[in-house]
Amino acid sequence: MDETIENTLASKFTLCVLPTQWGKTYNAISKIKKDISQDNEHGTSIHIIFTMNSLLNNEQFAKRLDDVEKEFGEGSVCVINSSKKPCKYKHVSNTLELMGLCAIKYDRPRVVVMCSNKLRYSDGVEFLKKLNENLNENVLIKRAFVYYDELHKYINDSVRKQIEKIHNLEIVNGIMAMTATPDKIWEPEGNGFWSKLKIIYLDNFSGANYAGYNDMIFNCVDDFSINTILHKYDEKDRQIIGFIEFVLKRYPEILENNTMSFIPGNIRRVSHNIIRDLIFSINNKAVVIVINGLDKSIKYNDDRGNCKTLPLQSYDEEVCETISRLVLHHKLENRPVVITGLLCVGMGQTLLHKSLGSFTSAIFGHLELKNDDMYQLIGRIFGRTKDWGDKYVQTQVYCPTTIMYRIKAMEECARNMACCHNGEEVCQEQYREPMNEMDECKNVKNNFRNPKKKNNENKTYDTDKEIRTFDTQDEAIEFGKTIKNYFRKRCDSKAPNELQENGNNPSEDYLLKRFWGISEKNTARMVPTIDGKWCVYWRPSLIKND
Prior knowledge:
Elements (H helix, E strand, L loop, with lengths): L12 E5 L6 H14 L1 H4 L2 E7 L3 H9 L2 H7 L4 E4 L9 E3 L2 H8 L8 E5 L2 H16 L9 E7 L7 H11 L4 E8 L17 E3 L10 E2 L5 E4 L17 H13 L9 E3 L6 H14 L4 E5 L4 E6 L5 E5 L7 H11 L7 E5 L19 E3 L7 H8 L4 E2 L11 E4 L1 H20 L4 E2 L1 H4 L1 H4 L15 E3 L5 E3 L3 E5 L2 H10 L25 H7 L9 E5 L5 E5 L8
Parallel strand pairs: 1-7, 1-8, 2-5, 2-6, 3-4, 3-5, 6-7, 10-18, 11-15, 11-16, 12-15, 16-18
Antiparallel strand pairs: 8-19, 9-17, 12-13, 13-14, 20-21, 22-24, 23-24
């Protein structure tokens, strides 16, 4: 790229980092309304919002722009996509149509909503460049602001270059990226623009009514063995669905009447159907809500035992509003209500509504999720729910201890940005500070995707590594399949000579430090340890997704 960006506090790029469901969208919309209200003083503005690239999340962000439409007039919000699905806001299919709208003095859009994908990112750059070219030709729009929702999910070299391009356009006055998990947005090496990023300045960081990590009741389940369910599920589903079945049978109160639970599945859509069948087999009076790319529905059995299906379709509601409306309309609220899915419910989506209240229970056995994804997933049970009266209860969370510690660290990292670095420029190490302070979370730091980082002493640390220890070799072998490694069963329990520590089997810390023998052809190793257990270590970057 020809242009360069100077990394100063004057940078137009800011990060809005807040805990999940804290109010990032609210802060963004408040800023938009404030900037529009200043148009007479500073020049007419337009606001480009890139939302998550899913229909549900796109609709959710658009729905929250109702106040903009009401305050600044019909047509103030415009959605750009190729879909012909009915939309309450003005709709265009491409940037050419959008440019035409912007040329109309009294009916131009103030806010434009696009999906976060390669096509729309490019459209946004070209649209802003066109506005910039005409900036001094007496056109209507004088200022532009850009917002990236959940940027951590989409950030890559191409997106970085696009952001750098629009950053240098005169018409662009500000760029805000919103996320609860910003780790991947930084580039930890070098001194470039992405090595330090400015955190948005918040006048008031208030946790009033927010229910987060400290408000959950964690029930740590560490004695689940994958071997107990080998005969029931596909190997891709054994860990997560096996854990769910294990927990539901141990804690039957989860599916009692007047409960609402969040029980997400695996990435495969078929796993959501398996979870639904499992729940019905335990309690046929349950109400199961599946939300994935193909199936968005409520299923339940009526009083005669007939299975009923209610599609989650609405053009003027958030999904949480649709769920609560249908559950209440069909008088299902006194039954056990369960929501499952994964990608469509794992980030950015609000599932809770005050008419149904907070979740009574949640089950998370997703040990293989990265820190970002795990915190985003469990974040669906967090939110500003404490002022919901008797509809608010503390959620009983069932998960392995390591997940509990990881969530604790991730929430502290997000809080650290707003509490300790409000309005400051911050590097990746400063974001990770709370992890360094949590001895019990020492394994959390090794769960990030970044292959390398440098500290202030210029020492290089390899973070592209993960490690897990099992009581038996069989458990280690079964786990290996989940990361696409098929270990052969060994007759002895002696570590290879090159991995022995002073002639003995190595400790887990020794294996983590050396990380010997990993390559593209040999992506993981299974090694017996000095305490009689079996350790599996691997590099996540070498595991190829299907």
